[in-house]
Amino acid sequence: MVEATVTVHNEVGLHARPAAAFVKEAQRFQADISITNVTRGGDAANAKSIVQIFKAAVAQGHEVLIRADGDDARTAVETLVALIEADFGGHQ
């Protein structure tokens, strides 16, 4: 299992277009990937499910924990962290 913690700086958090970009990227990987809103607490959400991402209620400034398990787990986590750090490629 590979994991990393990152802060979401996007003004809408992980909602609408940023969430769609995150899920689309997560679906490229074979690994099981979850995201947990560390700031708010709660259960881990399936990073490949837009509905579960919305339920995680990640707002601007929230810290999230991304975990992946599988053959491409390291690449998945690194890619998703980079996406968040790049402000979702300008998706708002």
Describe it.
- The protein has helices at residues 17-26, 50-55, 73-85, and strands spanning 2-7, 32-37, 45-46, 63-69.
- Strand 2 (32-37) and strand 3 (45-46) form a beta hairpin.
- It has a single domain, classed as Histidine-containing Protein, Chain: A (2-Layer Sandwich), CATH 3.30.1340.10.
- It is built from 3 helices and 4 strands; from the N terminus they run βαββαβα.
- It starts with a strand and ends in a 7-residue tail after the last helix.
- The protein has a 4-stranded antiparallel beta sheet.
- The protein is 32% helix and 23% strand.
- The model has no long low-confidence stretch (mean pLDDT 94).
- By secondary structure, it is α+β, with helices and mostly antiparallel strands.
Short description:
With 92 residues, the chain is α+β, with helices and mostly antiparallel strands. It has helices at 17-26, 50-55, 73-85, and strands at 2-7, 32-37, 45-46, 63-69.
